[in-house]
Amino acid sequence: MASTLEGTSAPSACRRVLLFLLLLLCFLIDIPYNNIFCVEAAASNEDDAVEHVCRSHVDYNFCRAALGSDPGSRNADLNALGFISLRLVKENVTDTTLFIREELSRERDEGKKRALSQCLGAYRQAADDAEDARRALSNKNYQTMSIEALAVGGAAEGCDRAVGGFAGGGDPIRVMNRDLDRLSEIAWVIAVNLR
Ligand SMILES: *[C@@H]1O[C@H](CO)[C@@H](O)[C@H](O)[C@H]1NC(C)=O
To answer: Where in the numbering of this chain does the Pectinesterase inhibitor domain appear (predicted)?
Structure first.
């Protein structure tokens, strides 16, 4: 079990629980998020929000490439970047859902089919969470946005656990799970910064 679940899934589950508890703590005692998350506070004259966000991301290069894929990110403020990040999340969820559905239709092994069905469920949940995060951002409810962004990452992780028994770390679905996890983390960093 342990060897097939290698990669990011266990530590990142742990990290997510910690983040969630920290969020709750912040909420209860009402201190600025960036103090305890070591997310650098935005300088008032910040002219490159992408740089600012990606410096707080676990994978700087991934973050820059993802946000940079949208030309609108160049002069975007944090709020606009929030919408861009959630659009990227949604597109990823849609593409990956199609991929999983395709795999499922070809799969003959019952165990794998069950795992892929679990993934479809997880990605359906991720689509809802991403939409909730977008709505929260529109309503300037950054607390909810951050929680929904974490939930998207949780869904990717759920799928990763489901397929981890038979798919190696380089398997396309697992790469897609990792991409979604990292994309959702961009939205999370932005939510924390906006608060
Ligand atoms: C998900 O997003 C990442 C980063 O933008 C991208 O590299 C990857 O191709 C996307 N995957 C899918 C399945 O859309």
So the answer is: 45-190
